[in-house]
Amino acid sequence: MFHSLPRAEKIALAFDRPSGALGLLVTGDVKSTTVADLQRDIFALLEHERVRELTPRLIALDLRAAGLVDSLGLNLIIAILRWARERNLPLAIDVGRRAVYLTMLAVGLDRQTDLRFHEVPVETTGSSGKPGESPTGAAKPTG
Question: How far apart are CA 88 and CA 36, in angstroms?
Answer without folding.
Answer: 25
